């Protein structure tokens, strides 16, 4: 079944449509934050002379950031609307650029991946847990990293036990709803969390901190809070892992952990940068 059929049947969230809306609010400040995220996690100032594979490129923002940092970029995504987002960003910022290639493809398609070369940096942020076969996707991503110095930068949803099972139910409900009810459903699902956060800020004497969490959200990787909420509530397929599971999986494949940023056991993604020995 292709991406469109899975989305229409309610088995997959329409990530590309969400990111198409995100492009309406994309600005220079958000792009600079995306660049900063790459520089910080990869511990570099430039990607000049390096090759960069963006698995599940989504909005295309981080492919754009990598290209602006000097990398030769290859982007692919399973969702045709996400592919269109990357193409649009290339049209806006790098028209006729031969150093940025964009295709439709799947992290589970071994024939497609086998045809690609190895890369200095393989990047897949918040993607592989949405493939429907996360451990296969994690394995496939590792095969595209160059030996002796290649880096793998991924993020995977944190396993919260029963809470993760609850979110899986929420996501299935969201994707079965008619389109006109989905934003309303997402609002009511997140409302208790948002109110708890607001009350906590008030009790700490810092109510403005809550509102800054919305107005300054773009400082977190250049993203949009509302679009990230929709991505979270709707994101299906959905798998999770504990940090030690990811570490053990890649350690056995000859990778060493270079950098780790966790969500402190809570809701969200743990970020990993592995170095291929």
What's the overall average pLDDT, rounded? 93
**How do the strands line up in the largest sheet?**
3-2-1-4-5-7-6
- The backbone outline, from C-alpha atoms, is globular
How would you sum up the major sheet? 7 strands, mixed
What percent strand? 15-25%
Poorly predicted ranges (pLDDT <50, ≥5 residues)? none
Class computed from helices, strands and strand pairing: alpha/beta
Number of helices: 12
Number of strands: 7
Distance between the termini: 37 Å
Order of helices and strands: HHHEHEHEHEHEHHHHHEE
Helix content: 40-55%
Backbone CA Rg? 18 Å
Concise structural overview:
This protein has 277 residues and is an alpha/beta fold. The protein has helices spanning 3-9, 15-22, 28-42, 61-68, 80-93, 110-114, 134-142, 162-176, 179-203, 207-215, 225-234, 243-251; strands at 51-55, 72-77, 100-104, 121-125, 151-157, 255-261, 269-276.
From the structure above, extract its key features.
7-stranded mixed sheet, 12 helices, alpha/beta, 277 residues
Give the topology.
Blueprint: H1 3-9, H2 15-22, H3 28-42, E1 51-55, H4 61-68, E2 72-77, H5 80-93, E3 100-104, H6 110-114, E4 121-125, H7 134-142, E5 151-157, H8 162-176, H9 179-203, H10 207-215, H11 225-234, H12 243-251, E6 255-261, E7 269-276
Helix pairs in contact: 2-5, 3-4, 9-10, 9-11
């Amino acid at each position: 079944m292709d991406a469109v059929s899975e989305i229409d049947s309610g088995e997959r969230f329409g990530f590309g449509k969400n990111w198409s809306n995100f492009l309406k609010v994309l600005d220079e400040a958000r792009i600079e934050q995306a660049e900063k995220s790459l520089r910080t996690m990869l511990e570099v100032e430039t990607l000049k002379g390096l090759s960069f594979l963006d698995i599940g490129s989504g909005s295309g923002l981080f492919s754009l950031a990598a290209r602006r940092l000097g990398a030769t970029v290859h982007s692919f995504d399973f969702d045709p609307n996400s592919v269109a987002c990357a193409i649009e960003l290339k049209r806006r910022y790098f028209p006729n650029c031969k150093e940025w290639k964009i295709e439709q493809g799947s992290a589970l398609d071994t024939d497609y991946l086998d045809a690609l070369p190895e890369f200095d940096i393989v990047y897949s942020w918040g993607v592989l847990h949405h493939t429907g076969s996360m451990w296969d996707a994690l394995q496939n991503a590792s095969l595209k990293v160059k030996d002796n110095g290649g880096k793998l930068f991924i993020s995977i949803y944190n396993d919260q036990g029963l809470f993760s099972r609850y979110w899986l139910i929420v996501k299935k409900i969201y994707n079965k709803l008619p389109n006109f009810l989905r934003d309303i459903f997402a609002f009511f699902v997140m409302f208790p969390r948002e109110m708890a956060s607001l009350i906590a800020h008030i009790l700490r004497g810092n109510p403005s901190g809550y509102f800054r969490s919305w107005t300054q959200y773009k400082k977190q990787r250049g993203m949009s809070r509302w679009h990230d909420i929709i991505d979270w509530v709707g994101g299906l397929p959905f798998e999770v892992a504990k940090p030690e599971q990811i570490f053990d999986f890649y350690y056995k494949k000859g990778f060493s952990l270079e950098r780790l940023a966790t969500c402190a056991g809570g809701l969200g993604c743990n970020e990993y940068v592995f170095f291929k020995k």
